[in-house]
Design brief:
The complex is a heterodimer of chains A (111) and B (113).
Chain A lengths: L3 E4 L2 E5 L4 E7 L7 E6 L6 E6 L5 E4 L2 E6 L4 E6 L8 E7 L7 E2 L3 E6 L1
Parallel strand pairs in A: 2-11
Antiparallel strand pairs in A: 1-3, 3-8, 4-5, 4-9, 6-7, 7-8, 9-10, 9-11
Chain B lengths: L4 E3 L2 E4 L5 E6 L6 E8 L3 E9 L2 E4 L8 E7 L2 E6 L8 E8 L7 E2 L3 E5 L1
Parallel strand pairs in B: 2-11
Antiparallel strand pairs in B: 1-3, 3-8, 4-5, 4-9, 5-6, 7-8, 9-10, 9-11
Classes of the chains: A mainly beta (111), B mainly beta (113).
Chain lengths: 111, 113
């Protein structure tokens, strides 16, 4: 059973556009929601994370929006750049002991 | 800091052979995680250690898989005997404490023929 459901599977965005990736979870005990970025041949790298006591967190061009009642969270990449082209994974855990990852979204930013 | 270091980067072996993957976590990190990544199943947690002690190994697929952490700076994941369905990228990750972000190594691409 997939603990975290992620969509879309792939995304193509024009340079300068906004990339939006969505995730949903079921376990209300989850209290840590990170996003990871993975380039080919590399391991996932922590991009940004949020806890359920806030509804939004912004770091540069990356923003997490969190909706606790809907059990959903999303990643917004503003002013998307070709260098942002990568696979993005959402994840969730209780206390970050055991991260459950989404299936990933392959983002392509077209120049 | 050199980050999480994994070796080898690539491993090609024949079915039935023993495979050992190695990991050096970031100095000072006290939690270590082994993940497996495949196209079909995505990222799966196999086992994690806290202060060198295995905490949860429920993700280890079967008895052919074993993991050890003899000290704070080294861990191994062993597959014996290996099978073609074990082919995947195996990642090691470490964390300064549970609740902080995980830092992943570059992975070991394992191919079992």
């Amino acid at each position: 059973q997939q603990q975290v459901k992620q969509s879309p599977q792939s995304l193509i965005v024009q340079k300068g556009g906004i990339s939006i990736i969505n995730c949903a979870y079921e376990n209300t005990a989850f209290d840590y929601f990170p996003w990871y970025q993975q380039f080919p041949g590399k391991g996932p790298a922590l991009l940004i994370a949020i806890r359920p006591d806030v509804s939004e967190k912004k770091e540069g061009r990356f923003t997490i929006s969190f909706n606790k009642s809907a059990k959903q969270f999303s990643l917004h990449i503003m002013d998307s750049q070709p260098g942002d082209s990568a696979t993005y994974f959402c994840a969730a855990s209780r206390g970050a002991n055991n991260l459950f990852f989404g299936t990933g979204t392959r983002l392509t930013v077209i120049p | 800091d050199a980050g999480v270091i994994q070796s080898p980067r690539h491993e090609v072996t024949e079915m039935g052979q023993e495979v050992t993957l190695r990991c050096k976590p970031i100095s000072g990190h006290n939690s270590l995680f082994w993940y497996r990544q495949t196209m079909m199943r995505g990222l799966e947690l196999l086992i994690y250690f806290n202060n060198n002690v295995p905490i949860d190994d429920s993700g280890m697929p079967e008895d052919r898989f074993s993991a050890k952490m003899p000290n704070a700076s080294f861990s191994t994941l062993k597959i014996q005997p290996s099978e073609p369905r074990d082919s995947a990228v195996y990642f090691c990750a470490s964390s300064v404490n549970r609740g902080a972000g995980l830092f992943f190594g570059s992975g070991t691409q394992l191919s079992v023929l």
